[in-house]
Amino acid sequence: MATKPIALVTGSAQGIGYASAEALQEDGFQVVLADVNAEGVAEAADKLGQGTTGIVVDMSDLGAVNAMFDQIETDLGPVSALVNNAGVAMPGDFLDYSIEDFQKVLAINVVGVFAALQRAAKTMVKEKIEGAIVNMSSVNAQVAIPAIPAYCASKGGVMQLTKSAALALAPHNIRVNAVGPGSIDTAMLAGVNANPDAMAMVMSRTPLKRIGTAREIGDVVAFLVSPKASYVTGETIYVDGGRLGMNYTC
């Protein structure tokens, strides 16, 4: 069994998930990485080292989500920090967007988040762990892009789920918050990075005039998990270079 508190980070083979895991490990957690990418999550676990565990899981498979927690609790112990980062966007034309794609995005981004949150909380309550849960939302919980309708809907759902869970779990001293990234240098933004016109559009709506790094999100995740955020629950912290504060573009 682990001697350090255990942090589970989903969608952590790369990008924001990996950066969050790295930040939590530096804060003293025994980190468990979970991702649908088997090769990627194994490489990420090897890179982090220090006994990091990598688990392959499809967050749309509710049985697999529960099995993941069973495995962690048997092998290491209960999870005291959960980072619900796994998510997909699946862009497409609004009028031609398929119901199947819409449902797939929600299955991972909302239902999977709820399933992991609920499962983690059940053990926290049972074991009297004053844990912390961080869900990954987006600025697209507040604003929208027409080509990613399901993603926008899902991130709005994550924002509201975070509030609901925070209220439900507050009597158990379990905190639930969310982080809403803006434009971050990850694989999801690779197409924008390669297109000067698209990057100019991003910069026009970003007062700090740069894209963020995955580690800048990971550090906010680590803050929300830490005792420094002990009176913060039910909140979504937007890490967006000032984007949501704008009422015009320049």
* Relative helix content: 40-55%
**Which CATH top level class fits?**
Alpha Beta
User: What's the rounded overall pLDDT mean?
Assistant: 95
Secondary structure tally: strands:
7
Distance between the termini: 55 Å
Structural class by sheet pairing and helices: alpha/beta
The structural domain count equals 1
SSE series: EHEHEHEHEHEHHHE
**Mind describing the biggest β-sheet?**
7 strands, parallel
The CATH homology group name: NAD(P)-binding Rossmann-like Domain
Low-confidence stretches: none
CATH-assigned fold name:
Rossmann fold
**Inertia-based shape:** globular
Number of helices, counting only DSSP H or I runs of 4 residues or more: 8
Using only C-alpha atoms, the radius of gyration works out to 17 Å
CATH architecture: 3-Layer(aba) Sandwich
Read across the widest sheet, the strand sequence of neighbours is: 3-2-1-4-5-6-7
- β-strand amount: 5-15%
Q: How would you describe the overall organization of this protein?
A:
- Helix 1 packs across helix 8 (214-225), helix 3 (62-75) packs parallel to helix 4 and helix 4 runs parallel beside helix 5.
- It contains eight helices and seven strands.
- The chain has one domain: Rossmann fold (3-Layer(aba) Sandwich).
- The protein starts with 5 loop residues before the first strand and ends in an 11-residue tail after the last strand.
- It has a seven-stranded parallel sheet, with helices on both faces.
- It is of the alpha/beta class.
- The longest helix is centred in the middle third of the chain and has 28 residues, at 99-126.
